[in-house]
Every structure is written in C-alpha cells, then in structure tokens.
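Take our chain:
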Amino acid sequence: MRSGLVVSMMTMLSRVMGLARDVTIAAMFGAGQGADAFFVAFKIPNFMRRLFAEGAFNQAFVPVLSEYATRGSRREVRELLDAVSGSLAAVLFLLTAVAMFAAPWLVWVFAPGFGRDPAKLALTADMLRLTFPYLLLISLTAFAGSVLNTWNRFAVPAFTPVLLNLSLIGAALLLTPLMSEPAMALAWGVLIAGVAQLAFQAPFLVRLGLAPRPWPSFQHPGVKRIMTLMVPALFGVSVSQINLLLDTILASLLAAGSVSWLYYSDRLVELPLGVFGIAIGTVILPALSRRHAEQSGEHFSAMLDWAIRAVLLLGLPAALALALLAEPLLISLFHYGAMTERDIAMAAMSLRAYSLGLVAFMLIKVLAPGFFARQDTKTPVKVGIIAMVANMVFNLILIWPLAHAGLALATALSAFMNAGMLGWLLRKQGVLVFQPGWGRYAVQLLGGCGVMGLGLWWFSPDWQAWLGWGLWQRIAWLATLVVGGGVLYFAWLAVTGVRIRHFRMRG
C-alpha cells in the first residue's frame, strides 16, 4: 500500500502537470490544424512507447529480472542488464531511423484522413521526424525505470513523466514565437523531454550499482526469454492503446477537430487511470513476480484480490464524477484562447463515453500482471485479439450515429470485454480466489457513489453558466464540487465500516 501511495502521489503530480500542459496547448492552438497534426505526430511514438516500453517490454522484462534477482548472483544480473540494454538500444535505433525516413507514409497509415490535405500531411510528417526519436529515448528510460521498480525504487520512475510536461509547456511558451509554424515548437519539446528523462534516471542506477554497459547480445538466455514473452505481450497488455489508436485513425476521417476532442477527453480519463490503476499495476507486478518465484500461490491470489478492491475504491467514484462534471471540467481546464464552446460540447460527449470504461481500463492494468508475473503472455494475447476485433465491430456500429463519441464508447465496451475475460480466466485457473467480504464491500462502494453522485447533481450549476465565469470562479466552484463529492463518498465509507487497515498488504 505504501508503494502504491508513493507512485500515486508522483503520478498525480505528473498528471496535474499534464493537465497544465494540455491547458497551455488548448489555449495556444485550440483544436485546429496545428493541434491535430501535433497530436497525431506525438501519438505515434507515444503509442509505440506504451506498446513496447511500458507495455510488452516491461511486462516481459520485470518477471525475468525479478527471477534473476531472486535466484541468481549479482554478476548474472549485471550481465542480463548489459545484454538487454544493448539489444533494446540496437533494435530501437534501427526502428527510429526507418520511421524518420518513412514519416509521410506512417502519417498516412495512422491518420489516413490527413491525406486529403497535403499541407496537413506534410506538417505532421515534419513533426514526426522530431518526435519519433522520443521512442528510443523513453524506451531506455523505461528500461531504467523497470530496474528501479524491481529494487522497490518507485518514486523516481513515477516522477520522470513530469519532465515531459515541463518540457512541452516550456516549448509552447518559449519556442512558439521563434517558429515559422508555431506548432513545431511542441515537436521540439517532445525531443528535449526524451533526453531529459533518460538523463534524470541514470544517476539512480549508478547509485544502486546497476548502471548497464550496453552491448547487444541476442543469444543471451535472458534476452531470448524476454523476446519470447514480448511477442504475445504486444497485444495482451496494450489492447486499450491499440483501440485508442484505431479511434484516431477513424477520427481523422470525421469532422475537423475530432482528433483533438478525443485527445482532450482521453487526457481527463488518463488522470485517475494513471493515479490509481497504473500505479497499483506498477507496484504489484514486481511483488507478484517475487511471489511466483517463491511459489507462494496463496499470497499471489490475495494480492490480486487486494489490487481489484483498491482500484474499485477510487475508480468507481472517479468514473461517475467524470460523467457528471464533464462540461465543468473541460470548461475549467481548456475553455480559453482558441478553444470554443462547440469544442467543449463535443469533447464532453467523448469524455462521458470514455468514463463508462474507466473501471475496465483500471482492471486490465491489475489483472494482466496476474498472467505476466507467471510468464504467461499467450493468454492475454488471445483475450486482447478478441477485444480488439470487438472494438472494431463496435466502432463500425457506433461511429455513424455518434461520430467521435461512438469511437470512445466502442473503446469502453471492448475494455469491459477484455477485463471480464481476464478475470474469468484467472478464476478458472485458480489463480484469483476472491477473499471474504465482497458482498458487503460492493454495497459500501455503490452506496458511496450514490450519495456522491446525488450531491454533485444537486449542487452543480448548469454548465452553460460556467462559460460566463472567470478563471478563479471556475476553479473555486470546481474545487468545491471535487472536495465536497470526496467528503460525501468517504464519509459514507467510514460510516459503513471501511477502514484503511483493510487495505494493508505486505509486498
């Protein structure tokens, strides 16, 4: 629990800075051509980062590294780190070089609608040549972060994303006036951030005595195992990211601004997802891997049960609050400068759709480690493929009546399929055994959400009134609603018997 709180606090700081970043971008660029171009140019390497670095690589690397750390010698651990870092760098360097050369074709693949506007396509390709090297830099950063997490140094990797947000804010404010195309400043900000994040984590590896001497060695037994585990994990852990990317591809075919509306609404969903879901998933993977290496099945199952309870504790009220306060949140954060009232209304539609799937997004983050910690990457792949196909079917059904909001709703529905199948299979395999007290806990959570939702609905002014308020009045009202809703929710939990000690668990 303590490790989860550390990661949550650092992630909260990162997400808040991320919102500040998005407020800056929204005010300066709105939802126009430059913003659309940047979001696609950034989404491509960012998608691959989540797919490879924080997705498949992390889920394959941490269990193998934990096994080496638990059963092997210090020398064997160092040899593994040298071989993995060198092999990872070599592959990513080649991938980056190819992607920079093929930038226009990549843009066309990921945002085919941009092909109708040659100027927009060319601008996005120029941005991509600057943003794609970020994949190489941030993947090496993720490698360092995985090592630190395995040695229970969670705060440093969790803080690192703050540097990306600071870099983008600084680039938007300082470099924009120097560019012939203002939005290009954001692409430079991404590249600068990649260098800064890797440089920030390196000293902490040195302090642990685990700084690698990179040397490619694809024949190393540990590298072979990681590569074997990575191939299926590419789908298993990152299905939600693939679905979001598919949304971008289809959104590029819709009305101008659709890509940006989905981006701004997704960013708000990412706040609780990162603070609660990803944080819990991050800390339980090394712990589950250790339990598996020690063959402690009972503790393994209890930890999964604890993780599900923890994400539901905060995921359910967060999803409800996002749905009820969609317009006030978007207005307070983004309705400045180039962001219009229509942009707010459109983004609110997709935010509500995404919020329906927030709990499922979180559950995927804590259920998938139940497979990866046991070095089973094939099962999540099968589940992921089914969910991805379902997402495409939902997209084709819902895009016509609901446009961009239909894409968001399709992502939410497929996430529930994904989480449901993962949970069912863990139960079937006997890995997940629910602990006593779930019936009472469900009533406590649902009652708290009901009380909080009623309070927010009763006291929140009509969203049209927010449009006429100034910045500080918006902040004051939003803070009042957030704090008031939180007080109602946790007061109900306290009255019905929920206590902090119920969430203590030894890692």
Remarks:
- Residues 33-236 form one domain.
- The CA atoms of residues 354 and 408 lie 5 Å apart.
- The radius of gyration is 22 Å.
